Amino acid sequence: MATSDSREVVIDATPEEILAVIADVQTAPEWSSQHQGAEILETEENGRPRKVRLKLKTMGISDEMVVEYTWTDHSASWKLLSSSQLKTQDASYTLTPDGAKTRVRFDITVDPSVPIPGFVLKRAMKGGLESATDGLRKQVIKVKKG
Prior knowledge:
Layout: E1 3-11, H1 15-23, H2 28-31, E2 35-43, E3 49-58, E4 61-72, E5 75-83, E6 86-98, E7 101-112, H3 118-145
Helix pairs in contact: 1-3
């Protein structure tokens, strides 16, 4: 059964700076505890990743998945192409400029391919949302400081 959740965070950076960190998928393990690795399989003409193989581990469950990204000036989203643990995963970052800061909304929907107890799935989703927002904010600030 598909489960959805979302979380918002405000980051002291421009949408361009935030999207640059999101696009640097190979550094995701530095700021997301669930990411074990990332390999870019295809890129867009502007150099941003289009297809990416991700290695993830959460709540003791390991997965290798391939996702396809879609980019705009104020968003990054991906759709699951293949996975050993999920039937579907759709996720997106929506960035809304707010003065010198940016409001970042992260939305995710997952549908596990195997039954997972509700409390385990809820805890895994919470960890993913925290990494996707708080982890992203910390990484953006780190990159800005150089």
